[in-house]
Amino acid sequence: MLAAEGSLTGMRGHRMKPKMRMVGVVAAAFAAGAVLGPVVLPPVVSAFAQETGNRAETYRLLNLFGDIFERVRAEYVEPVNDREVIESAINGMLQGLDPHSSYMNARSFRDMQVQTRGEFGGLGIEVSQEGGYVKVISPIDDTPAARAGVKPGDLITHLNGSSVQGLTLQEAVEQMRGERGTTIKLTIRRPGTETPIELSLTRDVIRPQVARFRMEGNDIGYVRLSSFNEQTDAALRRAVTSLRQQAGGNLKGLILDLRNNPGGLLDQAVQVSDDFLEQGEIVSTRARRADEGQRWNAKPGDITDGLRVVVLVNGGSASASEIVAGALQDHRRAIVLGTRSFGKGSVQTVMPIPGNGAIRLTTARYYTPSGRSIQATGINPDIEVLATREEANAPLRDREADLRRALRNDNGSAEAPPLPPTNLPAGVAEKVSRMPPEGAPAFDPTKPETDFQAQQAAALLRAWAAADPQRRAGR
User: How far apart are CA 296 and CA 256, in angstroms?
Assistant: First the structure.
């Protein structure tokens, strides 16, 4: 879930640069690792005092904090640990800003650095906090959580029988971590289920396979990206190369599946987008100060040689996933199919505090090439396709806009221009069904034919190829 201006420790042999950007999931810590980054800014107090011109008031408030801290140390019913109390105060200050700013102690910071290299220990779920409970954003493919049946939207209410109420998100995550082979019992409250669900999970070393791929028939390639870590771009390139070899020159199109992908490194989102684009803007950021904005542009070279592409998204597609979907949609390089994405359009900078971990601070919003901010709105698909018939009447899945203190969307009156038409051949989009037929089998991850959205994406690509046979096929 990190986004970096440069490379991370262990990435292509480069050293970590002094500044990193996160565009990751919903303030989510991994229940088996967290997220990483760095940058050092001037002291917050000094900046605040100078900008408000009320230095005396600032120091008065700092004295207030000192007074309360001393009162807690002296009179709380039990002795307190000074470091824990101060770290809790820092975390409270940051979490009071927005859902994605937070403090990481030294251990959490180290865990984040490990995670972004694509390997970490624990259960394999991305989580946020809601109503005092731990909310599952998405289980990571082929991990203990995924195999046990943990689902997006689950609320974890107890860990080993003890309530998570009163725990910070980081404290809950640390309890879910542990040595490989040890077990933990989760009590889950699932929407639509009246009784709590008890699951016993055995911790493991999490090495998520960031890119899974297969052929749909003998003419459509399918690649699923589960996250954006240091391995993602290279894994995508290997997958596309392998699919083109398997197809033997018969590849009519590619499905890029970003469903339930919570995001990750900004540089990987840029590289994945660049893999499909020959030129043009990929993404831009706008910070508090105008001179701190940045822009990333595509370089010549398309790893698919102009192959038709469909991108799958849903409510679990967040941040880096939305950067890729938005860039390919704005340039009309791909058709986006599925349901509206999560809507996390902010950038977090991770600033190490020497000897004391790091803070993760929201420092910018990001924008698609057409100037759209997807913050709290998400990416709307070009063609809506539901995963199940029940989804049509089910309560909407929580998204960024539902999080407490979520940043507003700042498009305001300066709305981005409408997207150009998809330019699909006449009648092709009409061949796609919005929802499964009555009696359709339930989705089974081991049976691709039960994945209705992916099957509709393949049908769209075949119809597109039949109606536009002159378009180059992937060599």
Answer: 21
CATH superfamily of 211-467: 2-enoyl-CoA Hydratase; Chain A, domain 1 (3.90.226.10)
Q: Which amino acid makes up residue 82?
A: D
Do residues 359 and 41 make contact, with C-beta atoms less than 8 angstroms apart?
no
Tokens representing 191 are 């929407």
Confidence at residue 40, expressed as pLDDT on a 0 to 100 scale:
29
Q: What pLDDT does 326 receive?
A: 98
Of the candidates 335, 291, 282, 332, the residue with the CA atom closest to the CA atom of residue 457: 335
DSSP string, 220-288: EEEEEE--BSTTHHHHHHHHHHHHHHHHTT-B-EEEEE-TT---BBHHHHHHHHHTT-SSSEEEEEEES
Render pLDDT for 107-132 as a digit per residue (tens, 0 to 9).
888 877 777 776 667 898 878 888 88
Q: Take residue 351 and report the two structure tokens written for it.
A: 């600033």
Rounded CA separation 145/123 (Å): 6
The answer, yes or no, to whether residue 161 has pLDDT greater than 50, is yes
Q: Return the percentage of the chain with pLDDT > 70, whole number.
A: 85
At 474, the pLDDT band (50, 70, 90 cuts) reads very low
- Give the residue numbers annotated as catalytic, written as ranges: 319, 330, 344
What's the farthest any 2 CA atoms get from each other in the chain? 79
pTM: 0.76
Phi, psi angle pair for 43, to nearest 5°: -55, 135
Q: How far apart are CA 58 and CA 202, in angstroms?
A: 49
The DSSP string of 146-164 is HHHT--TT-EEEEETTEE-
- Show Cβ contacts of residue 407 under 8 Å, excluding neighbours closer than 6 positions: 98, 345, 346, 362, 365, 375, 376
Give per-residue pLDDT as tens, 376-397.
999 999 999 999 999 988 877 7
Is the separation of the CB atoms in 191 and 151 below 8 Å? no
Q: List CB contacts of 452: < 8 A, sequence separation 6 or more.
A: 385, 386, 387, 388, 435, 436, 440, 443
Distance CA 81, CA 418 (A): 55
Fold (topology level) of 123-206: Pdz3 Domain (2.30.42)
Residue reference for tokens 């391995």? 231
Task: Report which of residues 417 and 329 the model is more confident about.
Answer: 329
Residue extents of the structural domains in the chain: 123-206, 211-467
Residue 413, pLDDT > 90, answer no
| Spatial CA neighbour of 134 closest among 119, 121, 145 | 145
Q: Residue 297's beta-bridge partner residues? A: 281
Q: What gap in Å lies between CA 407 and CA 435, rounded to an integer?
A: 32
